[in-house]
């Protein structure tokens, strides 16, 4: 007979612990630095948080993370991982993100993601997953 599994309490609206969301925030900050993403563009990629909030993150002042923001960070981490699998030279993977790409009609993956929607970030992630032989 099936039994319900108790859900652990989380400290965020996204279902992650504060430790987990802070780890994602720190990692996303580092990824954006390697991709050459400025604070304004980072705020767009993260669903419209303010550039001031992103700068606070960089100073170690992390706030609560909702579901949309956690999902965006998760997909950005997935994009980073796919690039690490595809490119042995990590610098080449970092440069790919801003390079024009035929798969995106000559636009870069960063340009696509800066359209601002979750679907735009997912589009890049799904493309990379397909290139690397993903799911």
Task: Give the key terms.
mainly alpha
* Spatial gap, N to C terminus: 32 Å
Tell me the major beta sheet.
none
What is the general shape?
A: globular
Roughly how much helix do the residues carry, as a percent range? 55-70%
How many structural domains in the coordinates?
A: 1
Binned strand content: under 5%
Short description:
This protein is mostly helical. It is built from 7 helices and no strands.
Structure description:
By secondary structure, the chain is an all-alpha fold. Helix content is 59%, strand content 0%. The chain contains seven helices and no strands. Helix 1 crosses helix 4, helix 2 packs across helix 3 and helix 4 runs parallel beside helix 7. The chain is globular, with a radius of gyration of 16 Å.
Break the fold down into its secondary structure elements and pairings.
Elements (H helix, E strand, L loop, with lengths): L17 H18 L3 H7 L5 H8 L8 H20 L3 H7 L12 H5 L4 H14 L4
Helix pairs in contact: 1-4, 2-3, 4-5, 4-7
